[in-house]
Amino acid sequence: MSEKTKLLFLLSLVILVNCKKITNDKLDAQLAKEFYDSIKSVNAQSFEYRYDGLAPQESYFVNGKIRFLKFRTSGEDGFAERKIIFNNQTDSIEKYILREVIPNWETYNGNVYGDMHDEYFDTIYIIYPNKKQIFTYSKNKLVDSTFKPNIGGTNYIYTMKKQTEKKYNDR
Questions:
Q1: CA 90 to chain centre
Q2: How far, in Å, CA of 164 to CA of 73, rounded?
Q3: Do 86 and 11 contact (CB within 8 A), yes or no?
Q4: Would you say residue 117 lies in a domain?
Q5: What is the enclosing helix (H) or strand (E) of 94?
Q6: pLDDT tens for residues 11-26?
Q7: 48 — phi, psi (to 5°)?
Q8: In what order do the strands lie in the sheet with 45-47?
Q9: 132 secondary structure, DSSP code
Q10: Of the candidates 22, 19, 21, the residue with the CA atom closest to the CA atom of residue 139
Q11: Which of 59, 126, 146, 169 has most Cβ atoms within 10 angstroms of its Cβ?
């Protein structure tokens, strides 16, 4: 191998390593596996329905009630994905995983998500509403564990749950 080829290879390797973005992909994959393993462990039934035409949705039922719900909303070059586990006895949210990926508007160039010239904020929140606790992750690491007396944003989830259950039970 010539010196020029070695130098070109080394330079390419350095560029690839420096362009790698740090995201929550590793943690998200682990949480997704746990979510789907939970679905499988209770033999939940999948039901195809979309409460909101703009939000792809996955619903899994146990005894006529949604036990697991996943949906994704998209904004201007970012997205929010939610995985929700409902308590089987109370119908309340037991665990709520929210991943938000949004552009850093100071560096945003209007490129497609993942372009190496744009920066994105990638945050995962693991929320336990009944315990009033939120765990916040960035770069696959816990950055905050907070007690929150009021955890908002659940009205839309409960409306989606109610309408999806109605559609499921009216089949």
A1: 24
A2: 17
A3: no
A4: yes
A5: strand 93-103
A6: 333 333 333 466 899 9
A7: -90, 115
A8: 45-47, 57-62, 65-74, 79-86, 93-103, 120-128, 133-138, 141-147
A9: T
A10: 22
A11: 59
The one-letter amino acid at 116: M
Distance CA 76, CA 65 (A): 33
Burial label for 12, CB within 10 Å (0-12, 13-18, 19+), is exposed
Structural domain count of the chain? 1
CB 81 within 8 A of CB 123: no
Residue 41 sits in which domain range?
A: 21-169
Measure the CA–CA gap between 102 and 130, rounded to whole angstroms.
27
Q: Which helix (H) or strand (E) holds 37?
A: helix 25-41
- Report yes or no on 105 lying in a domain: yes
Residues 58 and 32 sit within 8 Å (Cβ to Cβ): no
Length of the chain: 171
